[in-house]
């Protein structure tokens, strides 16, 4: 029931109450006929109100009926709307389900799009990297073609090695020598050449070489050769076109495994020579001198041999068998032995040089250590000397050689090297070699053996030592200083038979005649090439000592175009003899070297 219907019902109740009150009023009743007449004549106010109320009620009833109809219509519409709402809810549920499906599909699409975008971004990055890689590869290939670090022949990599030198040497006392110094030939004061100097230009130390490498994977094959022009043929001279011959310095082959084992054979630096890394070939630590004979006290050889080495962590151990020769010196020797002869041309030896008849190669062992700081080496060598001697024969024999026999003597020694970077700008090195029969391994080439009066050989004790100081103030400049010495011990024996009976036989005997070592004599011929040598001057060398200072300055250095450098060296040399009759002579020399070199990259 609506509020309007309730208001209409309330109004009807009010009107009914008023009508009942009017009918029960205490007012005296008039006669009926008068009342009817009056009523007909006029309508009272109450009647009018009742009539109006009735009319209002009828109007309100009509409105109520209309409202009922409207409510019924609304109820019908509400029912329809409810059904529509239910249908709408169903449709909404279906739509929501579809929307959820669509949302899931959209999310999947979004994820797919994001993944695709990420993939596209990665592809763009990879493409950019690929473009850069292609560009870098192209540059590298172009550089390798235009500026190859090595040449390639089939599977072999070939690295050229070369420098071109213009050098000079000044010596206060002439040795008639090129850029290399025969230290043990320094003249005593009595020699005519001790009073003349020499100055020579040279390009003969210029070097050619190449490294050949074939890497098979399990092992690496290498071959190396190196040559210069510090040798002379029968037509070589300094008169016009000097035509000095190409000299074999090194030529060897090697097989090396990835586990540190290497086998090397051919002509190479001796295992005695100090190296910079392990015992590896081509890492030899040579003095920085211009002098091609290096420096007194430096122990080395370049000779044919076979070397086996094995790397064991920071250590490397090696053993080598190397070709040998015997450097011999003796005074007052008898003519009752021999150990070699001049070379045979048919055997491709130099017929003007002497060669010893070797019984066995030199045996050298070495261990090298490369900790975090410095490089250290320790080793030893064994040598074997054989001669054929003739007992009882003291002069040139005129009868048969009864009792002739061969005799073999052994020699050997111990050596050690240490090189330490005391700062980033300075390296200090120490080398020593001591033993018997090891003079040949010193750069002054003091003798290995002498001879007993009976014709058997005797080894000579020898010591060699070198102190090095190398400074590197900057990348362009190196400063170097060396002090070295070599010593050969007096080794003599009393001779009891033959023309030298009562004299000492051997090396540096005290009875040697040194009386003429300080007396200059006139030339021995009229050709201009016959300076006199001292008479009565045995002068067996006791020690050779040298001190050197110098620098190397690199004007230009480029991995692409090579290196141009200038070097200068000053050396002071002394040669001291064993004392004999007449004293102990001494020879000195001041030497200045200069050199300019261009190294290929």
From TrEMBL:
Which positions are tagged coiled coil? Answer: none
The UniProt keyword set, sorted, is: Signal
Source species, domain of life: Bacteria
Query: What protein am I looking at?
Result: DUF3138 family protein
Q: Where is this region: Disordered?
A: 22-45, 63-82
- The secretion signal range is 1-22
Mark out the compositionally biased spans (Basic residues): 30-39
Biased region (Basic and acidic residues) positions are: 66-77
């Amino acid at each position: 029931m609506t509020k309007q219907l309730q208001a209409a019902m309330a109004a009807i109740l009010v009107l009914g109450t008023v009508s009942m009150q009017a009918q029960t009023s205490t007012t005296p009743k008039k006669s009926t006929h008068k009342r009817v007449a009056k009523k007909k004549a006029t309508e009272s106010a109450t009647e009018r109100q009742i009539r109006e109320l009735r009319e209002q009620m009828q109007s309100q009833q009509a409105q109520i009926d209309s409202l009922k109809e409207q409510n019924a219509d609304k109820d019908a519409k509400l029912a329809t709307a409810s059904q529509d709402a239910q249908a709408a809810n169903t449709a909404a549920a279906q739509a929501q389900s579809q929307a959820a499906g669509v949302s899931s599909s959209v999310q999947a699409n979004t994820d797919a799009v994001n993944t695709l975008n990420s993939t596209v971004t990665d592809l763009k990055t990879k493409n950019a990297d690929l473009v850069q890689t292609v560009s870098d590869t192209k540059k590298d290939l172009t550089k390798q073609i235009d500026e190859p670090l090595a040449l390639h022949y089939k599977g072999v990599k070939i690295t050229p090695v070369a420098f071109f030198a213009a050098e000079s040497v000044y010596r206060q006392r002439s040795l008639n020598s090129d850029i290399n110094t025969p230290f043990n030939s320094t003249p005593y004061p009595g020699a005519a050449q001790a009073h003349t100097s020499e100055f020579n230009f040279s390009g003969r130390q210029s070097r050619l070489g190449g490294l050949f490498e074939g890497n098979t994977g399990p092992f690496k094959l290498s071959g190396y050769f190196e040559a210069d022009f510090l040798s002379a043929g029968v037509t070589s001279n300094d008169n016009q076109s000097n035509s000095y011959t190409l000299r074999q310095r090194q030529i060897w082959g090697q097989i090396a495994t990835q586990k540190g084992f290497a086998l090397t054979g051919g002509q190479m630096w001796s295992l005695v020579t100090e190296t910079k890394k392990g015992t590896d070939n081509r890492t030899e630590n040579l003095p920085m001198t211009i002098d091609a004979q290096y420096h007194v006290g430096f122990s080395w050889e370049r000779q044919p041999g076979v070397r086996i080495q094995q790397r064991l962590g920071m250590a490397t151990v090696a053993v080598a068998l190397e070709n040998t020769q015997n450097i011999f010196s003796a005074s007052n020797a008898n003519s009752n032995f021999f150990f070699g002869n001049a070379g045979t041309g048919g055997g491709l030896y130099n017929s003007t040089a002497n060669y010893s008849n070797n019984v066995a190669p030199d045996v050298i062992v070495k261990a090298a250590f490369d900790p975090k700081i410095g490089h250290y080496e320790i080793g030893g060598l064994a040598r074997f000397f054989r001669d054929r001697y003739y007992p009882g024969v003291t002069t040139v024999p005129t009868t048969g050689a009864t009792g002739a026999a061969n005799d073999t003597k052994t020699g050997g020694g111990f050596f050690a090297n240490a090189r330490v970077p005391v700062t980033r700008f300075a390296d200090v090195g120490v080398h020593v070699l001591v033993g018997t029969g090891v003079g040949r391994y010193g750069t002054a080439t003091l003798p290995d053996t002498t001879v007993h009066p009976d014709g058997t050989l005797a080894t000579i004790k020898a010591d060699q030592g070198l102190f090095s100081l190398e400074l590197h103030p900057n990348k362009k400049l190196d400063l170097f200083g060396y002090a070295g010495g070599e010593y050969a011990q007096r080794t003599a024996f009393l001779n009891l038979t033959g023309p030298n009976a009562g004299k000492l036989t051997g090396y540096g005997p005290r009875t040697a005649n040194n009386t003429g070592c300080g007396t200059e004599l006139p030339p021995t011929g009229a050709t201009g090439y016959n300076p006199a040598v001292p008479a009565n001057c045995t002068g067996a060398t006791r020690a050779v000592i040298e001190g050197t200072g110098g620098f190397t300055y690199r004007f230009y250095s480029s991995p692409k175009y090579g290196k141009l450098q200038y070097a200068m060296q000053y050396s002071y040399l002394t040669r001291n003899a064993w004392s004999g009759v007449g004293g102990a002579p001494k020879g000195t020399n001041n030497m200045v070297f200069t050199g300019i070199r261009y190294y290929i990259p």
